[in-house]
Amino acid sequence: MVHENVEKIRVAKGVTKTYLAGKLGMSVQGYRHIFSGNTRLDVERLKIIADLLDVEPAVFFDDHLTKSVIEKINLLPTGTE
């Protein structure tokens, strides 16, 4: 669930895997391993991702919170966040 919610918010905000991977100090392939479940997503990485996506880490653990974040993003005028 956490992996899926991170990806949903990442896509909704238009943030690339390449950008997040770079900020996490890893390759895109390494990032893909985390989000395919092959590599553990630790708390420190999750905090960094939350900061980069401008959300609280708790959002990733609750489908309803994730949905509300995405709905807010979709309501923003184009070009604004």
Description:
This protein is mainly alpha-helical. The chain has a single domain (2-75), classed as lambda repressor-like DNA-binding domains (434 Repressor (Amino-terminal Domain)), CATH 1.10.260. Helix content is 63%, strand content 0%. It has five helices and no strands. The chain is globular, with a radius of gyration of 12 Å. The protein starts with a helix and ends in a 6-residue tail after the last helix.
Q: What's the arrangement of secondary structure elements?
A:
Layout: H1 2-13, H2 17-23, H3 28-35, H4 43-53, H5 63-75
CATH class: Mainly Alpha
Tally of alpha and pi helices: 5
Oligomer: single chain
Number of strands: 0
Structural class: mainly alpha
Enumerate the spans where pLDDT stays under 50 for 5 or more consecutive residues.
none
Mean pLDDT: 90
Taking all Cα atoms into account, the compactness measure Rg is: 12 Å
CATH topology: 434 Repressor (Amino-terminal Domain)
Percentage of residues in strands? under 5%
Q: What is the helix content?
A: 55-70%
